[in-house]
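Thread: zinc ion complex, take 2
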Amino acid sequence: MFGMSFVDLVLLLIPITGAILGATWAGRLGRNRFGWGVFGLFIPISVVILLFLRPAGEVAGRWKRCPACMELINWNANRCKYCQTSF
Ligand SMILES: [Zn+2]
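Output below.
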């Protein structure tokens, strides 16, 4: 359709998907959404790096700091997985 082949469509969708995934995952980790979105647009494979990165800081509803050891833990946790402190 419109002179676009299936390959053209895939080549268009990969950067768009990279940008969306990069921005979404970066947001979940408290990292720069715009920067990772642009990175994902031009180098789609770069979004895989985000899977191995730790959160950059507290993100309401996702990550909070343990009051005892200051490690970032799941927002809903009531016991720290690093130092076992309950709160
Ligand atoms: Zn802790």
